[in-house]
Amino acid sequence: MHPRLKTLLQSMPVFGGIREDILKFLLDRVVIRHVEAGQGIFRENDDATAMFVLERGKVVVSKHWNGEEHRIKYLEQGDCFGEMALLDMHPRSASVTAVDDCELIELSRAVLLELCEHDLEQFTLIQMNIGREMSRRLRVADDQLFHARFGRQYELPTD
After folding, report:
1. Which residues are within 8 A (CB) of 109 and not within 5 positions of it... i.e. 6 or more apart?
2. How confident is the model over 66-100, as pLDDT tens digits?
3. CA-to-CA distance for 116 and 44, rounded, in angstroms?
4. What CATH number does residue 56 fall under?
């Protein structure tokens, strides 16, 4: 097992509390992908079968609207993306493109299902961690939507 990759995963909320033997189990089965700057990793509405951990480089997340591509955010080393695919099995909700040359750890749904058969408790913990991460992101998006709609003009209603 690559100690650097193990350390990276251990530092991420999605893999919080995961035992070392399970990290080895996962790292023995993941695909390490090299993606050159400018290359798409996936496109909005693509079939979704894996999540990614950005080991090295920078990517941009974008959405297509009114015939234009709109940047949502940038992600860097240690960030993960595409994890919604492991829970909801819907097409990709955004596109991700490499800004720099990148190294990605690709964790497929098939590998997670293999983990489910191997160690249900650790599989469940990863699923719960993904749910928590998605909840954190939803709270940020909710707050951004609120401020975009109401800004500083919002006042609490009085009874």
Report:
1. 49, 50, 85, 86, 89
2. 999 999 999 999 999 999 888 888 999 999 999 99
3. 28
4. 2.60.120.10
Is beta strand 50-56 parallel, antiparallel or unpaired with respect to 102-108?
antiparallel
| pTM (predicted TM-score) | 0.86
E-only strand ranges, the chain: 31-35, 40-42, 50-56, 58-65, 68-76, 80-81, 95-98, 102-108
- Write out the residue range of the structural domain in which residue 98 sits: 28-149
Helix (H, G, I), strand (E, B) or coil at 89: coil
- Per the structure, the count of domains in the chain is 1
Residues counted in the chain:
159
Two tokens, residue 107: 């964790």
